[in-house]
Design goal:
Number of helices of chain B: 21
Strand content of chain B: 15-25%
Shape of chain A: elongated
Helix content of chain B: 25-40%
Order of helices and strands of chain A: EHEEHEEHEEHEE
Strand content of chain A: 35-45%
Oligomer: heterodimer
Largest sheet of chain A: 5 strands, antiparallel
Number of strands of chain A: 9
Radius of gyration of chain B: 24 Å
Number of strands of chain B: 20
Bound molecules: flavin-adenine dinucleotide, thiamine diphosphate, magnesium ion
Number of helices of chain A: 4
Structural class of chain A: alpha+beta
Largest sheet of chain B: 6 strands, parallel
Distance between the termini of chain B: 70 Å
Radius of gyration of chain A: 19 Å
Structural class of chain B: alpha/beta
Largest interface: A-B, 20 and 18 residues
Shape of chain B: globular
Helix content of chain A: 25-40%
Distance between the termini of chain A: 28 Å
Chain lengths: 163, 564
């Protein structure tokens, strides 16, 4: 099963490589990994998407907790949660195609954030599925460049990952 | 008063109570060596190779329970230490290793003798620190000792750039540190302990399987009390030997690949398995699909990630082994229920049946020296009371099988990483901790050559080790596998061009003996032990064809041992 694990860690050099190293050394897979400081500058928050059987996910959370820099973690997938990913897509936009691209972008609630006479750059936020669907909807030949942020997630309601 | 980083380093170790450190100097740590020179509280042992320094500190830690401390220079000094760090990591040994680093402004520049020590050691340490500011040095050292020695112990590396050792600041060594991200568990869950005790008292065919955690957690006394209270059979892993007296009737020997037949059969047929400070290693379980098919399993371990890693357990208990065992003892003593005596009598009957196979038997009439004979004699001559370190191979297994350890911390070997070269330097660490005890290193002609240079260190510090070299002329453990599983194609397992070990020992200033007749084994050992203040290198020429039995072949279950 797919799991989203959020981690609060000491904001120290090398913290990221400890997590990445753990995953490669133990052969766990990482689908995506994002990391950034939090409102508390001594902490950074990492969101990790991985897949595995229940046993493997149990080992992954135990091994992560064992890392001395990890302060706290939460498996978002244990409860209701919101998952978001941001994607920037640069597409060739010329002639009649420009109108059509604008329409597709609107349907997906995208925003065109940069325009030249030959291209659009579209910002889109949502779940991974939605971003995939948007890319599907585009003519592949028009896509110049795609950047995805990787998943971040937060629990619904009162449940929260904080100290 | 302001002190330099190097002075702070030395003061911090003194205030931490460190008495001895093992190391090797070089450019990046020269300020530190200068500060060490100008004090006399801490003894520095100069080994002949950084691997030797780490194994010596490791041996010291295993024998005393105190953290081993190492200092090496940057680059090659640090990379040479890696094998020793990984060895300690795999066996959960508390150690603090200080590595020199190039000055902060040069880090990342491919500077002279630069290596990414933090990156290189990351997968084989419990934690590591890079100290970039002299004001963080004392506190980081405190944290390093705290992390290395608490919870599941392990090696911690502290990487110190040279400029940090020259800069100055006020010295203050904290009494204690707390880290919000690191809080090891101590006491076990009361409800789980109760469930475990109920299983133990209800058991018809119980088995207590204990490991290195009982030694690391200083719980041999509690284990013995619990086992006697219950009357259950006890087996130890290779790392757990000495946690329960080996001469006791309730002890059924080591388990696992080269464990006893009775221990493995009892594991396979038990209905309740009580695993304590052991990690279900693949050398122990054999084929996991066939492991303990009918048992309810209790597992006590301080590290949650050890639990249900290889084998799913029924009653997990996270906690410090001594606390948990004491809580169990209290519950059992307070309970009206007694162990099921009738069932236990039948169970012991069955175990004695298995024991009567005498799975460790060997040929006593051979014209060649049998390695088992040497170890039995060693046990006899030392009264079973020596500290025994070992290298890796067949000799290690025979030592584990034939030297009956009644006390913890007397059997010192590399189990997890299986590092050849460990035995001699580890023995130095033990002897430095216990100057008046008998310290024996059981080794093979292959392993001993991996750190043989340390014979020179032994001379310098007058360490009267007794080296028992079981010289079968082969990388015997490899040869055995080639005989069993590769139709006798002995690829690279014959040790050619061996040195004359007697002359070699003598050239280092030690005594050497060569023994090639079975009749001389015991007297030679006695003679060597009588040389109290000299290192004696005993080169026993043993039967090259001898194999370690019994054995669980690869893919086999614990009930599928090959017997002789
Ligand atoms: C050639 C060779 C052959 C081998 N053959 C065998 C064999 O036949 N049989 C065998 O048993 N081994 C054998 N080994 C060793 C094997 O590889 C493992 O090292 C060993 O089995 C592990 O022992 P252990 O389970 O006691 O774990 P250890 O590595 O000693 O781990 C200790 C466990 O205790 C826990 N712990 C630590 N401190 C505490 C505490 N205070 N409280 C609670 N828990 C704690 C730790 O978290 C860990 O899970 C062999 C090795 C070699 C090199
Ligand atoms: C550093 C290292 N290299 C290789 C091995 C693989 N290995 C395990 S046992 C062994 C043979 C050891 O030979 P020896 O020391 O003569 O002991 P014997 O088995 O003959 O008793 C080897 C090569 C190892 N364990 N460690
Ligand atoms: Mg050999």
């Amino acid at each position: 099963m797919r799991h989203i694990i959020s981690i609060l860690m000491e904001n120290e050099a090398g913290a990221l490589s400890r997590v990445a190293g753990l995953f490669s050394a133990r052969g766990y897979n990482i689908e995506s990994l994002t990391v950034a400081p939090t409102e508390d500058p001594s902490l950074s928050r990492m969101t990790l998407v991985t897949r595995g059987t229940d046993e493997i996910i149990e080992q992954i959370t135990k091994q992560l907790n064992k890392l001395v820099d990890v302060v706290k973690l939460m498996d978002m997938t244990d409860g209701p949660h919101i998952e978001r990913e941001m994607m920037l897509t640069k597409v060739r936009a010329e002639g009649d195609g420009r109108e059509e691209l604008k329409r597709v972008s609107d349907i997906f609630r995208g925003r065109i954030i940069d325009v030249t006479d030959k291209s659009y750059t579209i910002e889109l936020t949502g779940t991974g599925d939605k971003l995939d669907a948007f890319l599907q909807a585009l003519d592949r030949a028009l896509i110049i460049e795609v950047v995805r942020s990787g998943v971040s997630g937060i629990a619904r309601g009162e449940r929260a990952l904080k100290l | 008063m302001e002190l330099t980083g190097a002075e702070i380093f030395v003061r911090s170790l003194q205030d931490e109570g460190v008495e001895i450190i093992f190391g090797y100097p070089g450019g990046a740590v020269l300020h530190i060596y200068d500060a060490l020179y100008r004090q006399d509280k801490i003894q520095h042992i100069l080994t002949r190779h950084e691997q030797g320094a780490t194994h010596a500190a490791d041996g010291y830690a295993r024998a005393t329970g105190k953290p081993g401390v190492v200092i090496v220079t940057s680059g090659p000094g640090a990379t040479n230490a890696v094998t020793g760090i990984a060895t300690a990591y795999m066996d959960s040994i508390p150690m603090v290793v200080f590595t020199g680093q190039v000055p902060t402004h040069l880090i990342g520049n491919d500077a002279f003798q630069e290596a990414d020590n933090i990156g290189i050691t990351r997968p084989c340490v419990k934690h590591n620190f890079l100290v970039k500011d002299v004001r963080d040095l004392a506190e980081t050292i405190k944290k390093a000792f705290y992390v290395a020695t608490t919870g599941r112990p392990g090696p911690v590396v502290v990487d110190i750039p040279k400029d940090v050792t020259a800069e100055k600041t006020e010295y203050h060594y904290p009494d204690k540190v707390s880290m919000r991200s690191y809080n090891p568990v101590h006491v076990g869950h009361a409800g789980q302990i109760k469930r475990a005790v109920r299983l133990m008292l209800d058991a018809k065919r119980p088995m207590i399987y204990t490991g290195g955690g009982v030694i690391l957690g200083n719980a041999a006394g509690s284990l013995t009390e619990l086992a006697r209270l219950l009357g259950h059979p006890v087996t130890n892993t290779l790392m757990g030997l000495g946690a329960y007296p080996a001469t006791d009737r309730q002890f059924v020997g080591m388990l696992g690949m080269h464990g006893t037949y009775e221990a493995n059969m009892a594991m396979h047929h038990c209905d309740v398995l009580i695993a304590i400070g052991a990690r279900f290693d693949d050398r122990v379980t054999g084929n996991i699909e066939k492991f303990c098919p009918n048992a309810k399993i209790v597992h006590v371990d301080i590290d949650p990630s050890s639990i249900s890693k290889n084998v799913k357990v029924d009653v997990p208990i996270v906690g410090c082994v001594d606390n948990v065992l004491k809580a169990m003892i209290k519950l059992i003593k307070g309970s009206k229920q007694r162990p099921d005596e009738a069932a236990l009598r039948d169970w012991w009957q069955q175990i004695e049946d298995w024991r009567s196979k005498d799975c460790l038997k060997y040929d006593h009439d051979s014209e060649l020296i049998k390695p088992q004979h040497v170890l039995e004699s060693l046990y006899k001559v030392t009264g079973g009371d020596a500290f025994v370190t070992s290298d890796v191979g067949q000799h290690q297994m025979w030592a584990a099988q034939f030297y009956k350890f009644d006390k913890p911390r007397r059997w010192i070997n590399s189990g997890g990483l299986g590092t050849m070269g460990f035995g001699l330097p580890a023995a130095m660490g033990v002897q430095l901790a216990y100057r008046d005890e008998t310290v024996v290193c059981v080794t093979g002609e292959g392993s001993i050559q991996m750190c043989i240079q340390e014979l020179s260190t032994c001379k310098q510090y007058a360490l009267p080790l007794k080296i028992v070299n079981l010289n079968n002329g082969y990388l015997g453990m490899v040869r055995q596998w080639q005989e069993f599983f590769y139709q006798g194609r002995y690829a690279m397992s014959y040790m050619e061009s061996l040195p004359d070990f007697v002359k070699l020992a003598e050239s280092y200033g030690h005594a050497g003996m060569k023994i090639d007749k079975p009749a001389d084994v015991e007297s030679a050992l006695a003679e060597a032990m009588a040389m109290k203040d000299r290192l004696v290198f005993m080169d026993f020429i043993t039967d090259p064809a001898e194999n370690v039995y019994p054995m669980i072949p690869a893919g086999g279950g614990q009930n599928e041992m090959i017997l002789i």
